[in-house]
Design brief:
This protein has 274 residues and is of the alpha/beta class. Helices cover 45% and strands 10% of the residues. It has helices spanning 27-39, 58-68, 72-77, 84-88, 111-122, 141-145, 164-180, 197-213, 223-237, 241-256, 267-272, and strands at residues 18-22, 45-48, 79-81, 93-97, 108-109, 128-132, 149-151.
Amino acid sequence: MVGSGTDHTKPKLEGGPVVVLVRPQLAVNIGMCARAMANFGLSDLRLVAPREGWPQARGLRKGAYAAASGASYILERATLHEDVRSAIGDLHYVFATTARERGQGKPILAPEEAMAASFARIRTGEKHGIMFGPERTGLENDEVTLADAIITFPVNPAYASLNLAQAVLLTGYEWMRASHGVAAPFQPIERSPPALRENVLSFFDYLETELDKTGFFRPPGKQPVMRRNMRNIFHRIGLTEQDVRTLRGAIVRLVEGPRRKGLPETAEGEDAGT
């Protein structure tokens, strides 16, 4: 299964800190973590003693790969470890994620701060990792002891427990912001240039003439204010050339009524359909 927005023709972002899932309980959650990693350019997944193995049963494998939704390349390259020490042995710096204060005297950072600092040091050649604990209990104190710093999330204090994949997603998002900036990945396409002032004013003249014929500007004493208000409505829109043609064509049809078959289209009608 491949989700909306997946485009394999575009370059694949990889790298970033290693994601270490410590004793994950469900294969489907591992798959969802892989998907979250792929969303934000993380690619190194390490599994420490997953409860259901990785994955031994055919059903577990199917569930994990379905949940990964196209990020199967991360699952296929994931490495399996017996304990945390072997999973983080080649790393220079390790974060532990936790929702609880552990009293260990370590730096405590929000994901934004942690990933900004991590990006700066990974660029120099360091290898970093982020540990995530089991879904029910989180990391044990002895496992947190192995980390250099703690990442905790600014959440509702009355309900601070995050789904495992959500925690990976939030951290990955901050990694993407730190490593690639905060600009949206695409911008609106300018399909028509701004309308020339003479075309806008010509449209106003035509519109107001037709409205005047129908008795729209009543009472007569308010006509100047009504005209200004209407013109300002269109100015706030920021009309393009195509907008002016379309609006003028629409009004032509309202004024002249339906086209009769066999007659050539007016210039306004042609413009409206452009």
